[in-house]
Amino acid sequence: MLSSLLGFFTSTPPEVNMSVKELVETAINENKIIIFSKSTCPYCRRAKALFATEYPDETAVVVELNQREDGYDIQNYLAIKTGQGTVPHIFINKQHIGGNDDAQAAFKRGDLTRLVKA
């Protein structure tokens, strides 16, 4: 069971709080579209607008990191997990898409729609 909670890490880095890791992994696994965001970030706003406008029938779960006490720890864990230090972090069907620029480019190529509709 512990190995399934650890995801791709062979061991949990000491700076990662296990409850934060479990929270993030559960959120990714249980939601088709999840966006880890900051409400003050213009790139996050653009990404959220893209999903709201282009996929109104899909529920994009948004976690506003700057409105959570553990937001810093969540962002730190996401940086370790993905190698991306900035927000937003967008996951579709458990796959890390990247940030706003990545999502916008994937949308223009048609890749985003294929992932959302899968």
Automatic annotation (TrEMBL):
Keywords: Disulfide bond, Electron transport, Redox-active center, Transport. It comes from the Eukaryota. GO terms for molecular function: glutathione disulfide oxidoreductase activity. Pfam families: Glutaredoxin. InterPro entries: GLR_AS, Glutaredoxin, Glutaredoxin_euk/vir, Glutaredoxin_subgr, Thioredoxin-like_sf. Gene3D superfamilies: Glutaredoxin (3.40.30.10). Residues 33-97 form the Glutaredoxin domain. GO terms for biological process: cellular response to oxidative stress. One of its GO terms (cellular component) is cytoplasm. The keyword Transport applies. NCBIfam families: GRX_euk. PANTHER family: GLUTAREDOXIN 2, GLUTAREDOXIN-1-RELATED. This is Glutaredoxin.
